[in-house]
Amino acid sequence: MRFHRKTTALGVLAVMATAVAPAVASPAAATTTHGGAPIVITTDKGDQGLCTLNSVARQGDTYYGITAGHCLDPEHLGGRAVSVNTLSGDLLADSADLRDSDYVMEGDASIYAPDAGLDDFAWFRLNSSVDPDDTGISSRPNTGISELDALFAAPRLESGDPVPVSQNLVGTIVCKDGAMTGRTCGPVLSVNTTSQEVFALIPAIAGDSGSPLYVFGDDGRVHVVGTLSSGSPVLFNLFDGTQSHMAAVGKPGPLPQS
Questions:
Q1: Cα within 13 Å of Cα(111), Cβ side
Q2: CATH code, domain with 47
Q3: Chain mean position to CA 180
Q4: Which of 135, 147, 200, 246 is most buried, with most CB under 10 Å away?
Q5: Separation of alpha carbons 47 and 31, rounded Å
Q6: What are the strands of the beta sheet with 62-67, ordered from one edge?
Q7: Domain's final residue, options 125, 149, 167
Q8: How many domains, in total, are found in the chain?
Q9: Which keywords does the record carry (predicted)?
Q10: pLDDT (tens digit, 9 = 90+) per residue, 144-153?
């Protein structure tokens, strides 16, 4: 099952000014984003899909948003991506930015075929108007159940560099931050160190695709190890290894296949 969620309405932000003194225009707050934030992808057909930003990668002076490959795949989306926005409608990437993007979707790894391999990774250039938090992970759940949303609300965690998938992860408690279910945690059930997948028992639902899976480091920071790809809602989920793809971010040409 691939995670994909149609969205039909985006929030509108209204700014109210008081009339106590002559009005002075306040500078507009810069658009920002971070690992665990929701992203809305719009296609050339007008469809919209909801995914989660895995992380923000910096290459020189340019920032890139990282997410799951199927979140930018035209076949999965039903059209070519032409913009990426925040949930409230602020621009993260326009059509020009998306020309500096890429994705890969290959492999059939699943709970039934854990050795099949999987690549499900994408990146896109963030618009120059965006001032991203490239070292933070946080999330606000949007399940529609207020008690759950309050329970899984997740404050900012400082993140370090992504780390590779290793056999030492098996049995470790790891967490993910998603646009729909917020911060949820659970044990790693198995890994494929060759093709860099992680299989974990962590709640997630549609819209969480791209979520960062991370471990807690001895340095006091969290380190992304995977990108949420697919699985069964609320139970068993599959994460593609993030670090194995990071070297391709910002480079022209197709992403390397593992």
A1: 11
A2: 2.40.10
A3: 11
A4: 200
A5: 23
A6: 55-59, 62-67, 119-125, 101-106
A7: 125
A8: 2
A9: Signal
A10: 888 888 888 8
